[in-house]
Amino acid sequence: MTGTAEQMKGRAGRLARLMPSGPSTAARTPFVLLVVLLLAGGLISLLLLNSALNEGSFRLSKLKRETTELTDEQQALQRDVDKYSEPDALERRARELGMVPGGSPAFLDPDGKVRGVPERATAQPSPAAPPEPEASAAGSASPSGSVPPSPSPSPATPSTAPAAPAPTTPTPTSSGR
């Protein structure tokens, strides 16, 4: 047994020489602290980065929700505009305001010549809308002579139909120059 005890003593001695416990342990402490601090700093910076990304994600989802709400509102407003812009709706509103379809249009050429025969609108407003005071005054003023009568259409020109609306954008014809 003494041989094995000496071998063990020899191994322990070698291990003790390889791992001294004296002043060299103090030299490792700054290195261990540096490694621990680097790991802690890395974890903290990773946590801060993750928090910033989450904040950006929440802000992005909020902005997407607001965009969806504003898009829905814009589409609703566009539907309202389209509804009010339909020809039937425009005609109904015009009749409610006392407007009537115009007669045949007349155009001015660049040289000052009048093309076409201007006519006064003769259609009556729809019975649902009360007649404008000006329309009834113009009708009663004509027999007294205070308002000049509109030029009568020539026999070649067809009379204006009260239900036919005038075109909104007349296209002038060429003067034949």
The gross shape turns out to be: rod-shaped
> Number of helical segments?
4
**Beta strand %:** under 5%
- Evaluate the radius of gyration: 48 Å
Could you name the ranges where pLDDT drops below 50 across 5 or more consecutive residues? Answer: 135-172
Mean pLDDT: 74
Q: How many distinct beta strands?
A: 2
> How do the helices and strands follow one another from N- to C-terminus?
HHHEEH
Instruction: Name the strands of the widest sheet in spatial order.
Output: 1-2
Q: Helix/strand/pairing class, anyone? A: mainly alpha
Main β-sheet description: 2 strands, antiparallel
Distance between the termini: 137 Å
Helicity, in percent?
55-70%
Structure description:
InterPro entries: FtsL/DivIC. Residues 146-156 have a biased composition (Pro residues). Residues 134-145 have a biased composition (Low complexity). This is Septum formation initiator family protein. Residues 71-177 are annotated as: Disordered. There is one protein chain. This protein is mainly alpha-helical and 177 residues long. Strand 1 (107-108) and strand 2 form a beta hairpin. The protein has four helices and two strands. It has a two-stranded antiparallel sheet with strand order 1-2. 58% of the residues lie in helices and 2% in strands. The protein has helices at residues 2-18, 23-85, 87-96, 133-144; strands spanning 107-108, 114-115. It has a domain at 62-90.
